Amino acid sequence: MSDSTPRLPASVAIVMPAYNEEASVEQAVRESLRILRQTASDYEVIVVDDASTDGTAAIVSALAIEDDHVRLLEAGRNIGANAAALLGMRAARCDVSFFIASDLQIHPDQLLSCLPLLDVADYVCTWRRPRSDPWHRRWMARVYNVVVRLIVGLPAHDVDSGILVRKEVIAAVASQLRCSSDFLPVELLARAMSHGYRVREVTIVHRPRSAGKPGSIVPLSVLRTLGDLARSLPALRRLRRDRPATR
């Protein structure tokens, strides 16, 4: 699937899902634009509003009028951060997309740590180390990631973190995805690897949340994720068994 010739991107998109992030989304967009102006000649910032009930969409809409590098997509209903991110990455016109949340815990400047890996990767996973979240979130994430690494055989230590991914990867695997829960990043990475795309991981800085409120861990969401894990396991194990070698 991949040759050894470096393919640095001509254009870069930062894709951010947002749910009730009126306290941080303007700064997140402006910081993204600042970083992209330094990085690429062609760029865009895509904010996917995940049915916010506050002023998030209105703020991004005003920013899009101010700067045509900003795009607002509206999910229409609450679909979750990962599904919203996928919606944005599928809509992106740029060579690569950098998916981060709009709460600035992963600052857009972490793109600069990921871009050099595109010499050897089509899909760059990020590892928040250390992770600046409450202890219960860190504990749950650690258990989840260990289970995923053991069962599915993925190289990522932090599968729910941001990613930098080539447009061709999303085009190849998006129609094959069956999960819509928080398990979606696992399936996305597993299917990308099954196509022979090169995967690398880089540690990034993770900041404490400075504005807004983190999403709560809803039991129904946890059950949906576990359900997707159970339903997807046979297919993901087949993908692991038949996975082609990559460089």
Give descriptors for this structure:
8 helices, 7-stranded mixed beta sheet, 7 strands, alpha/beta, Spore Coat Polysaccharide Biosynthesis Protein SpsA, Chain A, 247 residues
Describe this structure in a few short sentences:
The protein is of the alpha/beta class. It has one domain: Spore Coat Polysaccharide Biosynthesis Protein SpsA, Chain A.
Written account of the structure:
With 247 residues, the chain is of the alpha/beta class. It has one domain (11-241): Spore Coat Polysaccharide Biosynthesis Protein SpsA, Chain A, CATH 3.90.550. It contains 8 helices and 7 strands; from the N terminus they run βαβαβαβαβαβααβα. It has a 7-stranded mixed beta sheet. Helix 1 (25-39) links the parallel strand 1 and strand 2 (42-49).
